[in-house]
Amino acid sequence: MCSCKLPVYLVLLSILFAPVKNSFENIFNEYDWNKVCEKIHLVTDADVERAIQLAGHGTPEDFLALVSPAAKNHLPEMMQMSYALTRKRFGKTIQLFIPMYLSNECNNICTYCGFSFGNKIPRVTLTDEEILNEVAVIKAMGYEHILLVTGEDQNRVGVDYLSHAIELIRPHFAHISLEVQPLDKSEYEKLIPFGLNTVLVYQETYHKENYKLYHPKGKKSNFSYRLATPERLGESGIHKIGLGVLLGLEDWRTDSFFTALHLNFLEKNFWQTKYSISFPRLRPAEGDFIAKHPMSETDLLQLICAFRIYNENVELSLSTRERALFRDKVFPLGVTSMSAGSKTDPGGYSSNKNALEQFHIDDDRTPFEIAEVVRSRGFDVVWKDWDAVLG
Ligand code: SF4
Prior knowledge:
It contains 17 helices and nine strands. With about 400 residues, it is an alpha/beta fold. The chain has an eight-stranded parallel beta barrel with strand order 1-2-3-4-5-6-7-8, surrounded by four helices.
């Protein structure tokens, strides 16, 4: 029995006045989308120069300067700084990873996605045998880091399916990442012991009102639940969290400011967790969705440099959504990992099930070809996650 029993009134007082941990949503609610957007357009050259000089020590407000239209005139300096910071922290290495789509079943309607519930496409969820066939092909390419992807269907690809798939795949890979429906904290805690290392969860857009228009049906239409997912992941003790938005849905500068704000919050509250940022630009898919706010390649380059200058430790990932020439030019300037040889349909590596891809990829070179290009630029190719290599 405890010998230091406190009087009941003191216990109640300590509960009442205990510091309440702020949630990201509380911080997010202090900002107004339109005002942030206006502020970005009022940034001056002096603000940009100051943000570049703060390299690695800036605040989200400084990041805001780096993604502004004014920063476009400073792109050469940003590229130089981003290159230098990346080499200092990550050396001359590029990590390659590959996505494996386990299922294209989905109960959500996302107006921009080929897997959307309303699309009449063949639906496939891989069996154990099919998963292992995919594993064999991917292993033969040399990969040790795999990203498992599904649509959002709690019944067909819920936690039991995912834990089983991870258990099946774990012996073959050094690092397993997951990009699936947002889960509860207890569900993440269940998956981690099976060998889950990283979870990617993109907010798609931080424009709360318009988020509803893009996600009219299904669990994904709950903006707040998705927004709090990285916090649940942090609380679950996951090793790494990947953030990002779907670039092109809304103004990329404003959306990226909120991503930086989110990263800042998570790093302060879950400092032992590692973080990565991805840059998915809207690509053609099933349906007739047209990006309202298209982002150019120069914009994307600016954004990559902005994130590196803002945060020298965050991993930055560039996918096969981008064309080969662009990836070859940009990867040395801040990127730390790239997907290569990707298929975005379940079973796409080992069979041709006509299951329909989620979106069209633009860089369709083989991993071997991409690795050769990376090496020809004086970089080492890393097939595992950093931690497996450096640990
Ligand atoms: S984006 Fe994800 S949740 Fe939305 S329809 Fe596509 S697979 Fe489903």
